[in-house]
Amino acid sequence: MRYLTIIFSFLAVFAMQGLAEAANPCNPCAANHNPCSMKKMANPCNPCSMKKMANPCNPCSMKKMANPCNPCSMKKMANPCNPCSMNPCSANANTPIRPHAFNSFQEAVDLGKKMWRDDEGMGTAGVACLSCHDGYESLNLEKRQNFPHYVKMVGDVVTLDQMINYCLLNPMKGKQLDKNSKELTAMAAYYRAFRMKYLHEHKK
To answer: C-alpha angle with apex 139: 135 to 141, nearest 5 degrees?
Structure first.
């Protein structure tokens, strides 16, 4: 009888300990922390949690890109102590692609507008860009295509800059613009402004 009493006492202690473990959130066997738990999806600290995407400390978090301490963060390049930083020493070490050209997008658009209407300085054929592209339809904007895409006239997939240079070289009998020139930037800016206006007027 004495031995049975001792055995039952031990069993009671273990039972109480088991209840305490289940209620202890730090216990890996607790209902809320067990990776096999049905409730794991409600636990934001669980890497398999449905809420993990809202947890910026989780390496799989959607917000990780906004976390400068995350090695995959988009902002890591602004950290001069990061060995992967584009510019670990100084912001003045960048090599410019050309002399400064514009102070605003609108400034580039204004120059591009003049160039698109120029029927003398852009080539020897006596035509301007707007001689062929005088409306939305002639630019196929209704197709809502972003560059690069396939252009039947060219017979190839081209970027916007390449399409501009193709027209300058062929229909307009002019010269191609340098890829880093302010003139090519201006013409591309005007096209973008023209397309944005079309999309605004025709949005559904």
So the answer is: 100
Give the separation between CA 201 and CA 204, rounded to whole angstroms: 9
- Where in the sequence of the chain do the CATH 1.10.760.10 domains occur? 105-201
* Buried/exposed code over 22-37 (b: 16+ C-beta within 10 A; e: otherwise): eeeeeeeebebbbeee
Residue pair 127/171 in contact by the 8 Å Cβ criterion:
yes
Stated pTM of the model? 0.54
Instruction: Quote the CA–CA distance of 185 and 102 in Å, as a whole number.
Output: 10
Per-residue pLDDT reduced to its tens digit, 119-143: 899 999 999 998 888 776 667 766 7
CATH for 105-201 is 1.10.760.10
Rg from Cα positions in the chain: 32
